[in-house]
Amino acid sequence: MTHSYDYVLQAEDVAIHYGGVKAVDGVSLTLKKGQIRGLIGPNGAGKSTVIDAITGRLTLTRGQVTLRGEDVTALGVVDRRMRGLSRSFQRTSIFGGMPVRRQVELASHKMGVKDSDADAEAVLKELELLPLANVTAEDLGYGEQRRLDLALALVGRPSVLLLDEPMAGLSVKESLDLARHLKAMTSSWDVSVLLVEHDMDVVFGISDVVTVFELGRVIASGAPAEVRADPRVREAYLGSAA
């Protein structure tokens, strides 16, 4: 039997019910070190709700969340973040009127990182934002703003990163650029990624494993090629795009 500490993240039988509505109904997910798991499914399938449940924004109806072998189910968002569980949102959380470097340094300082300047420098370098360090965020292109948003989620070197549609609103070139950074980061920073994304080319291009949601449940999970070929997945979600 596989033990929980074989995974940096393990969500077991996670359920979120609102009265009679089962937004998420008994979902189990794992992440290995350095792995990218893509999470796809139609709108309303429960993808963002699962991320909210894993990060502690929602109280579980039932289930358990384990981070690097530690049960964090009873912990709130901040405590989970301090233990290495970070996330980004569909809308960027950057401060438009503040320079890039200053934002990342402040985020790092707030995380309690001893050398927040060095931490910020490393994050900016990793995401190729150093040349823009002194630029005010509102003057960045949208793709650069998404990268800054990712930088804010990366301060303090989290072990797990949950991304909710990071490619939303990006051009094809910007999406591929961000995907390249994500893929490189998993190996260079040992960070594991749970990626909710509508861009199928990105999901199937960079994910090690793809999980498909429908009506709050997992209907398929496995290697990208295997999932893409699954008749149920093609019928439920991919359609002719498969």
How do the strands and helices of this protein lay out in sequence?
Blueprint: E1 9-18, E2 21-31, E3 36-40, H1 47-55, E4 62-67, E5 70-71, H2 77-82, E6 85-88, H3 100-110, H4 116-126, H5 142-154, E7 160-164, H6 172-188, E8 192-196, H7 200-206, E9 209-214, E10 217-222, H8 224-229, H9 231-238
Helix pairs in contact: 3-4
If you had to describe this structure to a student in words, what would you say it looks like?
The protein is α/β, with parallel strands linked by helices and 242 residues long. 36% of the residues lie in helices and 25% in strands. It has a six-stranded mixed β-sheet, sandwiched between helices. A four-stranded antiparallel β-sheet has the order 2-1-4-5, with helices on one face. β9 and β10 form a beta hairpin. α3 packs across α4 (116-126). The longest helix has 17 residues, at 172-188. The chain is globular and about 50 Å long. The mean pLDDT is 90.
